[in-house]
Write a structure and sequence with these properties.
globular; 3 helices; five-stranded antiparallel beta sheet; Ribosomal Protein S8, Chain: A, domain 1; alpha+beta
Length: 132
């Protein structure tokens, strides 16, 4: 079965794994999903990720991060820009998540970056998702 929005499927996999208290989650790999995982790793929302090669497109394994009392570091994740409704913002209108406690992942002309990095670089773009 083909998925019409692979990024939303990836975000849902992460959300479901956190609710089930899994330590890792596997999803079909793509360049966009790998870049989202890099941003999450850079912002310390996940422990690590790796791409497992197979005959087809590969598998992206994401190792989720939990605190000492077994609470997930990611409390929420939301897809903002969807295939039916793309959300583009200018450099002055990039949304803050939870007053700066969360991040917006923004797809800019220089690649995927957080809302803070995009503001510092003076770039706008498509708001892919929000993580808090």
């Amino acid at each position: 079965m083909s998925v019409s929005d692979p990024v939303a499927d990836f975000i849902t996999c992460i959300r479901n794994a956190i609710q089930a208290r899994h330590r890792k989650v596997d999803a079909p790999s793509s360049q966009m999903k790998q870049e989202i995982a890099k941003v999450l790793l850079r912002e310390r929302f996940i422990n690590n990720f790796k791409v497992i090669e197979d005959d087809r497109q590969g598998v992206l394994r994401v190792y989720l991060k939990y605190s000492g009392d077994d609470q997930s570091v990611i409390t929420g994740v939301k897809r903002v820009s969807k295939p039916g409704r793309r959300v583009y913002v200018g450099k002055d209108r990039i949304p803050r998540v939870m007053g700066g406690l969360g991040i917006s992942v923004v797809s800019t002309s220089r690649g995927l970056m957080t809302d803070r990095e995009a503001r510092d670089a003076g770039l706008g773009g498509e708001v892919v998702c929000q993580v808090w």
